[in-house]
Design a protein that fits this description.
Blueprint: H1 2-35, H2 41-81, H3 89-146, H4 149-175, H5 179-182, H6 186-220, H7 225-252, H8 257-284, H9 292-319
Helix pairs in contact: 1-7, 1-8, 2-3, 2-7, 2-9, 3-4, 3-9, 6-7, 6-8, 6-9, 7-8
Amino acid sequence: MEVKIVKVLILFGLLLISFVLGFIPIKWIWHFKEKTKEKSKTFHLVISILSCFAAGVFLATCLLHLLVETRLILEDQLKDVEIFSEYPVSEFIMVIGLLCMLATEQLVMTYQEYIENTEETEDSHLTLINESSFEMTERNENDANRLSSSEEQRTRMNMSESSIEGLKQYNTTMRRPSAVQNKISPAEMHASQTDNSVFRSILLILALSLHSVFEGLAVGLQTETSSILKIFTGLVIHKGVISFSLGLALSQSSLSYCASLRSLLIFSAASPIGVAIGLIVDGLGVGSSPSLAIGILEGLACGTFLYVTFFEILQHEFSN
């Protein structure tokens, strides 16, 4: 009973510590953004240094912590079946995760561009049709008031010919859009960059949350109070640094203030969820050895960390 009480206390402690340490940079940066519209060079320098520090934390988490765990799990699991004994399976899965994130983002961005282009084409069609019908109606009313009955027949014939020519010009224009129509405005480019930043922030949250669930699971599966406290001490230091770095990354993304807090709350709840799952598994008496599926998921998460580090954080710093 005492061990379960310790686990429950750790569950709430991880939730509180992770959220508070991630909330500090989000609140500070958003407060500074609202206070000063024109940001000083010192502010830019501090944020740039902290963002690079966050990139280093994510990179170290991937290469020095997560990849090592993945290698140990997969070597232990594949040793029994005696396959891929000489092949770097962990590194291979990490690269597959990186490529999967890249392909997923490109597919999402391509689909969004297709939807936007379709909506713009439909809007231009409706605008041209409404304008042409309004002009023809106006012309009919003016001609009807001015012309006699004998002249109306000639006018209708001329109008039919002009409408046919207008439709031909319209079809030719829609088949061959001008360079002005194809030109991408700065606002559209900014919107595309915003979508990329939001998508990469979501990927970062998913990868960190997945890893945190496994970390909490390791705590929940322990049976001795001393081992639980040892793991909790290391986990608090580890998650504290990552939570602070995640807060920096979210505050620099295109997410709103409320969306950043929701994302931070999801990440903070991941480890307690893992602890709760470990408590349930321990109560049911199920084995506590890590499975092959966990090793594969950890390896894919490694690729996500690499992707976010180089395609989101460092790319933004290099461009500035």
